[in-house]
Amino acid sequence: MVGGSDFHWMRKALRLARKGIGTTHPNPRVGAVIVRDGRMVGRGWHAAPGGPHAEVAALREAGCAAQGATVYVTLEPCAAQGRTPPCTEALLAAGVHRVVYASTDPNPRMAGGAARLRQAGVEVQGGVLAEQADRLNAPFFHYVRTGLPYVRAKAAISLDGKLATHTGDSRWISSSASRKHAHRLRAEADAVVIGAGTFVHDQPALTVRHVAACRQPLRVVIAHHAPAFRAGDALLDGAAPSRMYVQRMDEMAERWQRAGMEVVQCAGLDAIMRNLAKDGYLDLLLEGGGRLHAQCLEQRLTQELVLYQAPILIGGERAVGLWHGRGVDRIDQALRLSDVEYRRLGSDQLIRGRVVYPD
Question: Are residues 130 and 201 in the same domain?
């Protein structure tokens, strides 16, 4: 039976799990707390691939105090050998009495930890604060189920849904508070992705600034063919790794490559996404422009929208909108958002939610 204290300790485990944002990919973010006689005797989180899992780190801190204790962990303990031994065996060896976990492991190779513990006589309770834990590991869960990365599309828009004026000017639609929030999203992402148009016209740095970051994400440009070479481009500054996807290698692509840009020949958005996932980039922040946003929505690759809506009107038929192209024919074909969050950021309204595609 789940009690009030179970939620209290699981919330602490979830806070620990968040420490792994930006460092654990492609592994899930996991935190663990060990409690005995109402007192925390051990805690840990998974910090990096190949490093100790959260349960093991917590057991090391707890030592012999783990015997007879309750373990709170945000993901079902693994039951199979990976880079590290299975956590179920470490828990059994420590003599824990009870294990409470949040999310069930979606990875069939690693799942089964709860059953293994129950068979050994350990009391097990799952699903405690599962919704929060699932949200924290949405990129990992999405990859396990689909083989694709989790795409979070970010855009600053006007009240009439424009990303830029008809001349391409977009600095700055959003407030400074919104831009700082956007940098936090970059800090959490494995990679920041833009299209060729945004790369050419905006010449963005795509680095994390204004907020603390444990590392810089991969900077990705998706283009049909390599844009004209620019010596001294921001993406060649060495501040973060950079990668350009092109449909074919040509002289211009080779110039970018010689200058230090990683250039990958890969045709089609689905193939590009799978290539990024294969390399461990599971949490993508898509920053536009309008054409790439539209393609990802139309191909059902975008999982989440983060919109910073400013109290301005841009107008104009030729102004850049969030969704280029034809759009839908009927309202019942419209894409909708679920689990929507609304928040005030300076003068802007943050609108954030999961994309629901029609059947």
Answer: no
Burial class (CB in 10 A: 0-12, 13-18, 19+), 268: exposed
Is the domain of 170 the same as that of 101? Answer: no
Annotated catalytic residue 55? yes
- Same domain for 180 and 118: no
Q: Is there a single domain that holds both residue 133 and residue 178?
A: no
Residue of 55, 76, 287, 304 marked catalytic: 55
Q: Tell me: do 133 and 213 sit in the same domain.
A: no
Asked whether the beta carbons of 161 and 286 are under 8 A apart, the reply is: no
- 106 pLDDT exceeds 80? yes
Q: What pLDDT is stored for residue 3 in this prediction?
A: 62
pLDDT digits (tens, 9 = 90+) for 206-218: 999 988 777 899 9
Question: Would you state the structure tokens that stand for residue 230, as one six-digit string?
Answer: 């620019």
Question: Both 133 and 154 in a single domain?
Answer: no
> Which three-class secondary structure state does DSSP give residue 73?
strand
> pTM higher than 0.85, yes or no?
yes
The tens digit of pLDDT for each residue in 257-303 reads 999 999 999 989 999 999 999 999 999 999 988 889 999 999 999 99
In which domain, by residue range, is 348 found?
149-356
